[in-house]
């Protein structure tokens, strides 16, 4: 059966090359015919890229993203580029002509805002210029923050290569649970969260001569908090240089925040991008994506494709579908290299997206919005944008955080389109209508600080001695309710006392680079004598839902393998079981393969576990094992997650405090069992509000681990007695 939307004519004779050529000519001819179809107005050409009428996706051209250069220059072929020396490449970047002006501006101003189109060389070049200029003499370091781990790693690798040093020597990166730096490291690329943690050990950032807050327009929670802290440090460290780099036009805001710091603009260099929209909304955007990629591949001139999807699962599914269809089409189409890129992708796989496309082939990079501004991939001519991203949202009233697939903002959509015009005139195909763009997309993305829980950050600020959070210097303040709830939760976890001051356990919790609830769980493992097991659970939870592997053609086997790991008690114990068996197999990759478990997720869990184990001493938790008494493990988990509880009522699961309707995720080991009381690791809103990683508990444990939070009467069995009308008066109780 041919793949949807691509109908191929069998060619009987001719050499493969010849066949290929003739076939392509036929395709291009077909596309050209449709392009000039009668009903398409000349100003608004229709793009019907595929060959089989009823199953094509029709795009209509509506706008053009203006470039500043005429598309006269042919795209540099990857072969040529490889031959160019690194020096030449560096000199070719838009930032290069401004090198000296930029260094002058930095010398003359303490804070400088730098604005420049993505790919102009801000991230890779500016720290090198500073290095060359001597900013790293006398043991001083330069920090450059990135909102994303992948960006920090890949950029550091690139810069190390450009400087001809080994990654981890002069140039390194530091991300949570992974430190690739050494004594010699003077250029440190790090996630914004890591620089935030640096304040704990070095509150004045005394060993840094320059701090560059990069990708500032992303407005991640950590970047926003950094702004406030760095502004403060800069006041009493006049020699510290602060650079705020941004891809887009929010620079006026940054400038105003930093007492009207000057803005240095690096002129853009971009080719025009034609933007096409679908005529009607697409019901299944993943399917539509796959069809469109093949459409572009068979009908469009050379040039690589960049597809924006929302997350790992989706990306893996899309890649699998694409590879599957390409395999079925076989030699009838030119080679299509399908490459995923997302946060948890191992670095060797990440490196592949930067390798030049072999002649005659086409590359399709399927990415999260990491490729929007953080990473620049050479050779992209086509962008396919379904218009979604995964976004956190937070309801301070219920304290529920959820990660949902939502329409991206217009600003994002335009950034995405811009990626098509870096090397030549490009095309951006949007899998939504022009009307939707105009009327349904928000102008910009709401800063993360306004749609996330703040427990983590509040704990950190408290440990930095910042007590008056209401008056902290926020670029955009978080909702008052969110801040209050964070304080309440930290109080309930015992991290703050009734005066809002950090307690001894609170100080320990801040030492661990994980969420307060997870820290609390780890601290509680001391009491329940099961820190070995809890470390494993914590590590497995932090590799995030990518433990099991479920290939399309072996679904039954994979599901059986997963069920074989089930233990009574719930998903946390299943995770523990998987990890323990892997350890017993001698960390065997064969074992992973046979049991449909992702080796790289387990390897990462092993790294995380080692890191956490190394921190145990600092928080005064000894190593101990429960020797199979899993009740102790479950109690320790409950001690951290008593906030995330639900009970079964006649109308399904309701969260204990807020009475929200929630559902067990179908992948959970408890999906069939439906225990009366449970706790969940996280809520994910897809079609419903799903609880992911669910553990069966006893209501009595809640009184044991959090007597200040739960009252016996709210834990009465709803079937035995009528539900009390009013529950959850913590706020009043806290007074
Ligand atoms: O930060 P900005 O977006 O201004 O640019 P950059 O990340 O410094 O990228 C400058 C150049 O380095 C681009 O041409 C990228 O393609 C290249 N680069 C790369 O080849 N590999 C990386 N990991 C990062 C950048
Ligand atoms: Mg950059």
Automatic annotation (TrEMBL):
GO terms for molecular function: ATP binding; helicase activity; hydrolase activity; RNA binding; RNA helicase activity. Residues 103-267 form the Helicase ATP-binding domain. Residues 65-85 are annotated as: Disordered. The keyword Glycoprotein does not apply. Its EC number is 3.6.4.13. One of its GO terms (cellular component) is cytoplasm. Residues 292-465 form the Helicase C-terminal domain. It is an enzyme of class 3 (hydrolase). It catalyses: ATP + H2O = ADP + phosphate + H(+). GO terms for biological process: innate immune response; mRNA splicing, via spliceosome. Keywords: ATP-binding, Cytoplasm, Helicase, Hydrolase, Immunity, Innate immunity, mRNA processing, mRNA splicing, Nucleotide-binding, Nucleus, Phosphoprotein, Spliceosome. It is found in: Cytoplasm; Nucleus, Nucleoplasm. The keyword Nucleus applies. Required for pre-mRNA splicing as a component of the spliceosome. Contributes to pre-mRNA splicing after spliceosome formation and prior to the first transesterification reaction. As a component of the minor spliceosome, involved in the splicing of U12-type introns in pre-mRNAs. Also plays a role in innate antiviral response by acting as a pattern recognition receptor sensing splicing signals in viral RNA. Belongs to the DEAD box helicase family. DEAH subfamily. DDX16/PRP8 sub-subfamily. Component of pre-catalytic spliceosome complexes. Component of the minor spliceosome, which splices U12-type introns. Interacts with GPKOW. Interacts with TRIM6. Interacts with RIGI. This is Pre-mRNA-splicing factor ATP-dependent RNA helicase DHX16. The gene is DHX16.
């Amino acid at each position: 059966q041919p793949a949807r939307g691509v109908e191929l004519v069998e060619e009987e004779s001719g050499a493969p090359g010849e066949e290929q050529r003739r076939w392509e000519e036929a395709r291009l001819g077909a596309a050209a015919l449709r392009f000039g179809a009668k009903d398409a107005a000349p100003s608004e050409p229709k793009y019907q890229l595929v060959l089989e009428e009823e199953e094509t996706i029709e795009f209509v051209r509506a706008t053009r993203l203006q470039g500043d250069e005429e598309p006269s220059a042919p795209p540099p072929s990857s072969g040529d580029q490889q031959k160019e020396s690194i020096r030449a490449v560096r000199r070719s970047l838009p930032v290069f002509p401004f090198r000296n002006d930029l260094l002058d501006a930095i010398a003359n101003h303490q804070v400088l805002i730098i604005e420049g189109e993505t790919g102009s060389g801000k991230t890779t070049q500016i720290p090198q210029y500073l290095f060359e200029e001597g900013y790293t003499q006398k043991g001083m370091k330069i920090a450059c923050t990135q909102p994303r781990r992948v960006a920090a790693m890949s950029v550091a690798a690139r810069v190390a290569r450009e400087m001809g040093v080994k990654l981890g020597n002069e140039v390194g990166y530091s991300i949570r649970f992974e430190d690739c730096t050494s004594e010699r490291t003077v250029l440190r690329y790090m996630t914004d969260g890591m620089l935030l943690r640096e304040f704990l050990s070095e509150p004045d950032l005394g060993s840094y001569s320059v701090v560059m807050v990069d990708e500032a327009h992303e407005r991640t929670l950590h970047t926003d908090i950094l702004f406030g802290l760095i502004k403060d440090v800069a006041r009493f460290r006049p020699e510290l240089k602060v650079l705020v780099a941004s891809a887009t036009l929010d620079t006026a805001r940054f400038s105003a925040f930093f007492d009207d710091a000057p803005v240095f603009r690096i002129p853009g260099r971009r080719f025009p991008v034609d933007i096409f929209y679908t005529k009607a909304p697409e019901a299944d955007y993943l399917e539509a994506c796959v069809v469109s990629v093949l459409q572009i591949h068979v009908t469009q001139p050379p040039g690589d494709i960049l597809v924006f999807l929302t997350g790992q699962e989706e990306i893996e599914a899309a890649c699998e579908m694409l590879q599957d269809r390409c395999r079925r089409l076989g030699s009838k189409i030119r080679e299509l290299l399908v490459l995923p890129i997302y946060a948890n992708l191992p670095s060797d796989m990440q490196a592949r997206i930067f390798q030049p496309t072999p002649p005659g082939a086409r590359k399709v990079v399927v990415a999260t919005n990491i490729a929007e501004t953080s990473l620049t991939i050479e050779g992209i001519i086509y962008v396919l944008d379904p218009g979604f991203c995964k976004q956190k949202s937070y309801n301070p009233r219920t304290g529920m955080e959820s990660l949902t697939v939502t329409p991206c903002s217009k600003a994002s959509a335009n950034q995405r389109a811009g990626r098509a015009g870096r090397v030549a005139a490009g095309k951006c195909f949007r899998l939504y209508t022009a009307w939707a763009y105009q009327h349904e997309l928000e102008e910009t993305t709401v800063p993360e600080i306004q749609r996330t829980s703040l427990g983590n950050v509040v704990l950190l600020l408290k440990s930095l001695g910042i007590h008056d959070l209401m008056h902290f210097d926020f670029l955009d303040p978080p909702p008052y309710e969110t801040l209050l709830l964070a304080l309440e939760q930290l109080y309930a976890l015992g991290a703050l006392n009734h005066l809002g001051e950090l307690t001894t356990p609170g100080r320990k919790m801040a030492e661990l680079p994980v969420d307060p609830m997870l820290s609390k769980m780890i601290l509680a493992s001391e009491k329940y004598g099961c820190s070995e097991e809890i470390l494993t659970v914590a590590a497995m939870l932090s590799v995030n839902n990518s433990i099991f592997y479920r290939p399309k053609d072996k679904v039954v086997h994979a599901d059986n393998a997963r069920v074989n790991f089930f233990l009574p008690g719930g998903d946390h114990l299943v995770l523990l079981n998987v990890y323990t068996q892997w350890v017993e197999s001698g960390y065997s990759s064969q074992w992973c393969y046979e049991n449909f478990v992702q080796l790289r997720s387990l390897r990462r869990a092993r790294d995380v576990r080692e890191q956490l184990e190394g921190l145990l001493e600092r928080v005064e938790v000894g190593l101990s094992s429960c020797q199979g008494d899993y009740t102790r493990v479950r109690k320790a988990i409950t001690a951290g997650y008593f906030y995330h509880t639900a009970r079964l009522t006649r109308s399904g699961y309701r969260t204990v405090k807020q009475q929200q309707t929630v559902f067990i995720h179908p992948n959970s080991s408890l999906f069939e069992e439906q225990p009366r009381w449970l706790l969940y690791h996280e809520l994910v809103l897809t079609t419903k509000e799903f609880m992911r990683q669910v553990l069966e508990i006893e209501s009595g444990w809640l009184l044991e681990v959090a007597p200040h939070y739960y009252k016996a009467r709210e834990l009465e069995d709803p079937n035995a007695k009528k539900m009390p009308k009013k529950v959850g008066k913590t706020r009043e109780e806290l007074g």
